[in-house]
Amino acid sequence: MTAAPFTFAERFRTLAPRYDVVLCDIWGVVHDGVTAFDEACDALARFRRDGGTVILVTNAPRPSEWVARQLDRLRVRADAYDGVASSGDVTRAEVAKRKGTVFHIGPERDLSIFHGLNVRFTAVEAADYVVCSGLFDDETETPDHYRAVIETMRRRDLFMLCANPDLVVKRGETLLYCAGSIADLYRGSGGDVLYAGKPHRPIYAAAFAAAAQARGGPALPSRTLAIGDSLRTDITGAAAMGIDAMFVIGGIHAEELGGNERTGALAAMFAAAGITPKTVMERLVW
After folding, report:
1. Strands 53-58, 244-248: pairing kind
2. Partners of 31 in beta bridges
3. b (16+ CB within 10 A) / e for 197-234
4. Same domain for 205 and 147
């Protein structure tokens, strides 16, 4: 498949007048899990001051209010966004509709997605379904550590709800595995998986609803831009929703793109993925 043309943009202000709404990824665009990106926050704040609406759309497996508190801790400017749509919110809505016991794969910090819900936890051998929000220890484990658990899940034909479809995330300079890496192993073995976040439609429905509420009227796809650093989630999701996408190079794909001649590397990457963003930026700056 031949990739469509794409353009480089040095500054967001040259694109901003085309759009009323920005659906912006968080991790890799706004911060790296350790430090807020001041230039990105400034760009979003300036877009809002000019009348735009910014909804941060994240595959974080936590409720949006918890995500907002993390943004505060990382000193992401409050004037950089109007609202947050999280994979955790979509997960909570799905869990609330289901009955039965849950086997949770993920760290203790993700238990916030179950707060206030009538959920009983149990071992995989007795569970009615599985919620995967991440690895138990993403600093020491890989998806291969979960093959025995996956075999048990397949033997019992359990449904899995994936609370974070990302495969990896960049924390500082380190790439860490996410829930999507386990969910993809399970689906590859024939397991039934529902992905709560990007690139799947439910989280975009939540984001558009948040934008409409903030604007006091509908958010038009033709005037909406998605910004992200992941081809698999951000750019693919935008294409599926029929909205423009801007790909930020300096995120999870930075190492594979190298340092100098990037046009050819990007074209090859987009062709291999069968998806091309409208615009490419090194990083989000005004």
Report:
1. unpaired
2. 27, 36
3. bbbbebbbebbbebbbebbeeebeeeebbbbbbbbbbb
4. no
Say if residue 83 is in the same domain as residue 220.
yes
Cβ contact 85:203 at 8 Å: yes
DSSP string of 189-244?
TT-EEEE-STTSHHHHHHHHHHHHHHHTS---GGGEEEEES-IIIIIHHHHHHT-E
pLDDT tens digit sequence for 159-194: 999 999 988 876 777 788 999 999 999 999 999 999
For residue 100, give its domain range: 89-195
Q: Are residues 51 and 191 in the same domain?
A: no
Within-domain flag for 61? yes
Q: pTM (2 decimals)?
A: 0.84
- Tokens at residue 80, please? 């950089």
In angstroms, the CA 264 to CA 28 distance is 22
